[in-house]
Amino acid sequence: MDVTTPPTPPHLSSKTLYRWHRASLEEHLRALKPEWADKPLNITSEVLGGNASFVNYVRHHHLLDPSTGQPVEVVEKSIRKLALIGSQEARFHRTEGMLAGSKHFHYPSCLGVIETPCESLIFTEFVRGKPPRMHKIGKQLALGVAELEVLSHNYLQAQPLGKAPLLWSMDFFRPWFLLRPRFNFARCLPELVKLGLEDQRFADLAERFKAFIPLTQKMAAEARRSPHCISHMDYLQKNLFVDKGQLHLIDWSEVKVGRIGFDGGAYLGSLFRRKDMKVFLTAQTDFIESYRAALSERFDVEQALRNLRYVFLLTALFHCLRPETVAEYKERDRMALLLEKYNYLLGLLDQG
Which residues are within 8 A (CB) of 302 and not within 5 positions of it... i.e. 6 or more apart? Predict the structure, then answer.
């Protein structure tokens, strides 16, 4: 798959509105849909789960379009600002045309973004569908990820220089992302030392895991020099739905300006965390084979796969080494499986 013609440099969507004060939901919807002005809106709302950082709430609104009488379902997400700085999710939704023409993923349309001094309000289409079995969709997911990477790479390449500071602030390698716990597995090693004192099977493993610190630093330096793209970074079952064979991808709360291969590593890292080794290894083979075949010819496949392994290691190491995971495996009497996962990860050291 390839998209060789970069799109026309996009601009901020005209659906981005700025307000200096709080307003009612009805006022927000009428601002985003001017044809609804002065028409009554009968809205029913329910609260949805929203556990991402800085999320105030997520709400699902039902109403009838006062112009057509057709039902409308909208998701409203409120993200509070820190020092008047909007979230990367709001910035992503404010762009127009980045992923236009996608065939393998369906992305909910964005009704608009309303920015106030204290929060970003994102209004998107509500998506219905069946949550997939994550280890079964590796091949389909690989096609969507490869497509997302080339479309967003072309978009980023077409940006004017004036957008460079915005893209720089969203880059994966900025300190405010890299200092987050999930990308710092080394802080979990002291607890692994304690585990080795309690259970001889885990003795001396902490010392062996230290070898991943210089390895991941080397992989990070190599990844920095590879092609940029938008990375969703949150391939969990709650963010994917299947409807009539179409895969829908939602929730861009973890979106970054990443590198080719990052999303594959995020997907496989989440599978490794949750599945037995046999299931994980089968899904990994399905994904990598399909991704290798689907990746745009303009990208270096081996570099993409190295980037994939880099993000996989960051994700898998943290989630398998953190004390909460160890406690969970102890409680469920599955320490043998945890040791199997540790040995698998240590085996990757030989691959560099």
Answer: none
Range 207-227 burial, b when 16+ CB lie within 10 A, else e? eebeebeebbeebbeebeebb
What pLDDT does 94 receive? 86
Average pLDDT on 310-331 reads 96
Chain centroid to Cα 2, Å, comes to 22
- Taking alpha carbons only, the member of 158, 292, 313 closest to residue 223 is 313
Task: Show the domains of the chain with their CATH numbers.
Answer: 16-125 (3.30.200), 134-351 (3.90.1200)
For helices 189-198 and 323-331, the axis angle rounded to 10 degrees is 30
DSSP string for residues in 287-339: HHHHHHHHS-TTS-HHHHHHHHHHHHHHHHHHHHHSHHHHHHHHHTT-HHHHH
From CA 103, how far away is CA 148, in angstroms rounded?
10
Q: What is the pLDDT of residue 26?
A: 96
Of 226, 252, 92, the closest CA to residue 163 belongs to 92
Q: For the packed helices 138-157 and 277-294, what is the interaxial angle rounded to 10 degrees?
A: 40
The CA distance from 331 to 324, in Å, is 11
